[in-house]
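About this split. The held-out portion is used to measure sequence recovery: a designer receives only the structure tokens and must propose an amino acid at every position. Recovery is the fraction of positions where the proposal matches the reference. Here is one held-out target exactly as it appears in the evaluation file.
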């Protein structure tokens, strides 16, 4: 039985603590969004060539100039990486139930690294579009797993604040990407921006393969599930001998080059069936649906802002350094706004209704300030009002993801985050960049385009108001069918603890 006891024990990491884990995820998230900001910057994205009526033509710059892209193609290029993200996110979330998630992150980030380098080596529209799709596949490897890990290991009174630190990397990364892309484009060639990103991400791809496995709340480790299967088969045989043979066969099957065709087929059918059941549960959860609908409308605007913002600012207010101005404004307001949103919700007492109140109030006020900003002709008035608007709008990041994590059972958090990511992109910023490009081509007025786009934020605020009045239950502490260990004839929940928490628990248990 000592063998079973060892198999059932969860391996404890020797170096990673909750704060270090948070720091690693934040840096990875930051690099992801630096990439998005860089490809949207004027230095990397560039502009198409122009010709005067007299026939004098000037060559374009950056990606748009080198590949001769119109605004629609340019918008498609912005959204291409999300195709890979949307397809791969649910797959990685499902695989996390039986594969070490840090190995999945290592595989995904390796794909991301090579795809980013491929963007720098691209030679036409289709080659860079395919590489952008593969960048999305790489990002999907950790986007649905990082938030649940952070939620598990954050101090109880600071859960939203820790989530806010993670999501703060979205505006900070985009803003740094604007600056980074602008500097690389001005002093070198846009291709070197992607080479630099690949170099930065490479150590984290390697880290994904060497990190010791950690356990998510709601799931038992792969080793425990194998051992429990063996134990159950031993107990299921009344003669004892047949049970041992069955146990041996099970372990041989698990360690072989691959399961039999029939077993492989059953696994696929079971996983597909479970995936469809999880999707049905999410669609029937009104709190989750309303939260994601509001997030879709919000992300429709933010996605278009992040891509078209520098170009709109350059054309409306004749900003000579649009990348630096938008980058600086976004990084300051994004960091302060995101952290403030998480801090305020924790002070309000983090609950789902309070999260909806904060979401609707900050988005409504932020939309009003951003809309008013684009009405001014003065650059300084625009910057003042737009800064306040961004500060308020970015306060949503912690609360909206807190709701996604706490309105479902622990075992469903990865799929909840994955489907939230899929939804906000496929209905939000994936179509928004091309649609804004088409609308701008039609009206040929960046101010009018910006005002129409900003008005969608009012819709997001209205949807989140509905969530305040919905009955809600925080399911964070609910047990899951996957959350089991063998303790005689009973089952007990497995709790994911990193070194700091484990040490605390050991000290408290040793006290008289």
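Reference sequence for scoring:
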């Amino acid at each position: 039985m000592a063998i079973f006891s060892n198999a059932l024990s969860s391996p404890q990491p020797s170096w990673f603590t909750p704060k270090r884990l948070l720091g690693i995820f934040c840096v990875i998230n930051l690099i992801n969004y630096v990439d998005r900001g860089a490809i949207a910057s004027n230095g990397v994205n560039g502009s198409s060539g122009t010709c005067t009526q007299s026939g004098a033509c000037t060559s374009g710059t950056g990606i748009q100039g080198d590949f001769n892209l119109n605004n629609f193609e340019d918008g498609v290029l912005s959204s291409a990486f999300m195709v890979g993200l949307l397809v791969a996110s649910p797959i990685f979330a499902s695989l996390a139930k039986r594969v070490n998630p840090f190995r999945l992150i290592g595989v995904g980030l390796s794909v991301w690294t090579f795809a980013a380098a491929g963007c720098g080596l691209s030679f036409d529209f289709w080659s860079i579009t395919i590489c952008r799709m593969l960048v999305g596949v790489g990002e999907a490897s950790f986007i649905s797993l990082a938030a649940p890990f952070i939620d598990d290991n954050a101090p109880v009174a600071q859960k939203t604040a820790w989530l806010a630190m993670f999501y703060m990397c979205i505006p900070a990364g985009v803003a740094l990407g604007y600056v980074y892309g602008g500097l690389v484009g001005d002093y070198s060639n846009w291709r070197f921006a992607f080479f630099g990103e690949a170099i930065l991400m490479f150590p984290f791809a390697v880290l994904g393969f060497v990190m010791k496995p950690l356990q998510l709340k709601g799931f038992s480790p792969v080793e425990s599930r194998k051992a429990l299967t063996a134990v159950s088969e031993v107990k299921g045989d009344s003669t004892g001998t047949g049970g041992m043979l069955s146990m041996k066969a099970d372990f041989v099957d698990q360690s072989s080059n691959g399961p039999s065709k029939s077993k492989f087929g059953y696994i696929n059918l079971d996983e597909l069936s479970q995936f469809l059941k999880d999707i049905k549960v999410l669609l029937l959860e009104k709190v989750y649906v309303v939260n994601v609908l509001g997030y879709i409308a919000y992300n429709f605007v933010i996605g278009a802002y992040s891509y078209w913002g520098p170009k709109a600012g350059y054309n409306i207010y004749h900003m000579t350094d649009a990348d630096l101005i938008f980058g600086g404004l976004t990084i300051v307001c994004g960091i302060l706004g995101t952290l403030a949103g998480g801090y305020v919700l924790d002070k309000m007492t983090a609950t789902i209704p309070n999260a909806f109140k904060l979401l609707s109030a900050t988005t409504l006020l932020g939309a009003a300030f951003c809309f008013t900003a684009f009405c001014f002709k003065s650059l300084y008035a625009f910057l003042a009002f737009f800064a306040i608007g961004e500060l308020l709008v970015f306060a949503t990041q912690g609360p909206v993801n807190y709701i996604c994590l706490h309105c479902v059972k622990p075992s469903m958090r990865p799929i909840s985050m994955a489907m939230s990511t899929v939804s906000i992109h496929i209905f939000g910023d994936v179509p928004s960049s091309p649609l804004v490009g088409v609308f701008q081509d039609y009206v040929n007025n960046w101010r009018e385009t910006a005002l129409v786009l900003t008005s969608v934020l009012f819709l997001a605020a209205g949807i989140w108001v509905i969530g305040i009045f919905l009955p809600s239950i925080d399911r964070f502490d609910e047990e899951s069918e996957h959350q089991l260990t063998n303790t005689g004839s009973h089952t007990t929940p497995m709790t994911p603890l990193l070194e700091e928490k484990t040490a605390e628990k050991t000290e408290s248990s040793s006290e008289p």
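Annotator remark: The chain is about 75% helix and 0% strand.
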